[in-house]
Amino acid sequence: MNLPPSTNADELPPEDDAPWISDDPSPDPLTGSSAQRHSAELFPVPPDEGSRPPTAEKPAAGSGSHHQAIGPLPLVETAFLASAASLMWLINTYFPPGPLLRILFPLPIALVYLRWNLRSAWMAATVSGLLLTILLGPTRSIFFVMPYGFLGVQLGCLWRRRASWGVSIITGAILVALGTFFRIWLLSLLAGEDFWGYLIAQITQMLEWGMRLLTNWGWVSLGALGQPSMEWVAIAAILSVLFSSVVYLFTVHLAAWLVLERLGVTMPEPPNWVQMLMEE
């Protein structure tokens, strides 16, 4: 951000999403000459206290010039966490350990946002997608970026702004559900098969099993409900995807709360009933 000569950088409101140092050439405060900065100088080094980086540092006592600490730390962290997210997806593809790694998929990108800013988070998601494109091909890399890449950016944004767990879980569940429908559509397009029809068939069998169970228990008379219509089956399929997405986002929040707390990165506190369950 290029500041007018009469403006003090410490008086400006903080900006979460804007780069802290502009990419455009700006005059050096000491020499007054304009020069293109090195790529490592585009990121300032954050202070020790807290995880929120300042837009500028205060000058040291007794110093007549205004200096700003710069370094390659954000660039290195972004590259490291992007490669970590890609590595988890790669391991889960060939040696799936169950749902354990799936819970951690969006956390590296969310951590990049919490440590730095929106630009770094999108860089991490993009680099992860490019790495997976080289290693696994474009199709599987797309399945990572949508929804987990976008989910990491969304969770980092909401956690940075101290949104409640309910808001972040609901919005994240909608994004994961959209990613599930996008995956079904893309797989159906590439394979030439109707995978949505397979899902509808599974939901139909589940509804028929539930009706038979209610009939055997005597709660529903035989033939009272009849054959479920396709509209109700489609609604049940959408609700099942949304429910599984909400459960997944809740486990992601629990894992993030346990992991980020040990890393010294703050995120919104869970509800009181969650804290009581974790303490017990």
What report would you give on this structure?
The protein is built from 9 helices and 2 strands; from the N terminus they run ββααααααααα. It is 61% helix and 1% strand. With 280 residues, it is mainly α. Helix 4 packs antiparallel against helix 5. A two-stranded antiparallel ribbon has the order 1-2. It has a domain at 73-192 and 252-269: Orthogonal Bundle (Arp2/3 complex 21 kDa subunit ARPC3).
Mean pLDDT score: 77
Number of helices: 9
Major sheet: 2 strands, antiparallel
Report the principal-axis shape: globular
Structural class category: mainly alpha
> How widely separated are the two ends?
49 Å
Report the sheet-strand fraction.
Answer: under 5%
SSE run: EEHHHHHHHHH
Low-pLDDT runs: 1-15, 17-26, 28-51, 53-70
Under CATH, the topology of the domain at 73-192 and 252-269 is which?
Arp2/3 complex 21 kDa subunit ARPC3
The side-by-side strand order for the widest beta sheet comes to 1-2
Q: What is the class of the domain at 73-192 and 252-269 in the CATH system? A: Mainly Alpha
**Helix share, percent:** 55-70%
Give the beta-strand count: 2
Give the structure's gist in a few sentences.
The chain is mostly helical and 280 residues long. 61% of the residues lie in helices and 1% in strands. The protein has 9 helices and 2 strands; from the N terminus they run E-E-H-H-H-H-H-H-H-H-H.
